[in-house]
Amino acid sequence: MTDQTLRDHALLGALPDLATAFGLPEAREHRFLAEGLMNLNWRIDTGRASYAVKRITDVPVAKVRRNLGILSHLAADGLPVPAPLATPDGTHVVEVAGHHYCVFPWVDGAHVPGIDLTAEQAHELGVLLARLHENLKEHGPGPLPEQPPTAKVTAPDQATATADRLLALMPPDSADPFDRAAARALEERKILLDKHADAHPAGSVPAGPYGWTHGDFQYRNLLWADAHVMAILDWDRLAVRPYAEEVARTAQVQFGVNGRFDLERIAAFVAGYRSFIPLTAEELADGVERLWWKRMTDFWQLEFHYDRGDTSCDDLFLADEELLVWWTGHRDDVQAAFRAM
Questions:
Q1: Per residue in 201-258, pLDDT tens?
Q2: C-alpha span between 288 and 286 (Å, rounded)
Q3: HEC string of 120-141?
Q4: Which of 96, 198, 252, 286 is a plausible cystine mate for 17, CB 3.0–4.6 Å?
């Protein structure tokens, strides 16, 4: 069977039980959604309505249940958050044949990469992220810890050792284009690590306020229509983090395109955020430098490829590596964009 056939078989086998559990009409059409990187997702059409069906594969089910439980509160506060369907007993996750599923109303819209947003839309996106952080103060799934979360700071020698381990896993003299590109990138990364070994963040406690955050707020999890965000998707990584960390990460994933940052749009995005939650320049600078160092010492896509045999994130590694090299050479420019108001 092809991968597509296996995915269709998995959904069709689960649909009758899901329809019973969530009170869905009979599905007339279904389509696998290839955009997701981790979980499996489909669109089903019943004739009366359309729904998104998600099979959970990458997150503990208990955590998914916890996270889904807050979405109706966020939606009631006016945020563009699709609330999950619930069974009559209030359950949002249903097990079918050993797999766990949740279902959402379908929301029309498009995933818009960063440089396809106008500066005004980038500003709006920053305001939306700040509104989300503010609402999660009330509707987060639990109380905040009294102490701020700590952040792991990987030592340069540890990162170099990981690079060497991954290089050793590559077939010698491989003709595979990805193996060859990854090997070159790892050798270049080792040079960067040696050159910037003294630039790692000081201490393990990030600066600034913290709270419940989305965890993956970026274009793959946002649907736009009529120049506005219509839906914030994928709540699997909801957790307590420094706000500056999520601001920096969103800017990186959203506006790091074609091997460089779009500094104008980053400035507009951060200004939008700070118009609602006034992070200081120092707090933002700390978040940006910590993210840069995390990317400098992180190899998760290659660990997926060589440790798990999962090649789904190969393109992300090559794109992120190109961006990292540019970012390292333009750190002052990037910091200036985050300070702009």
A1: 989 999 999 999 999 999 999 999 999 999 999 999 999 999 999 999 999 999 999 9
A2: 6
A3: HHHHHHHHHHHHHHHHHHHHCC
A4: 96
Q: How far apart are CA 18 and CA 96, in angstroms?
A: 8
Q: Which residues of 43-54 are buried (b: 16+ CB within 10 A; e: fewer)?
A: ebeeeeebbbbb
Residue 271 CA to residue 291 CA, distance in Å, equals: 19
- Residue 192 is encoded by which pair of tokens? 């960067």
Q: What is the DSSP letter of 196?
A: T
**C-alpha torsion 91→142→220→21, nearest 10:** 0
Query: Model's pTM, two decimal places?
Result: 0.93
**Coil/strand/helix, residue 66:** helix
Distance in angstroms between the alpha carbons of the first and the last residue of the chain? 55
Half-sphere exposure for 246 (CA within 13 Å, toward CB): 27
**By the 8 A CB rule, do 129 and 243 touch?**
no
Contact 278, 142 (CB under 8 A): no
* Distance from C-alpha of 330 to C-alpha of 61, rounded to nearest angstrom: 41
Question: What is the spatial distance between Cα 262 and Cα 252, in angstroms, rounded to a whole number?
Answer: 9
In sequence order, what are the residues at sequence separation of 6 or more whose Cβ sits closer than 8 angstroms to the Cβ of residue 55? Answer: 10, 11, 14, 39, 40, 41, 99, 100, 101
Minimal CA–CA distance to 284: which of 233, 330, 248? 248
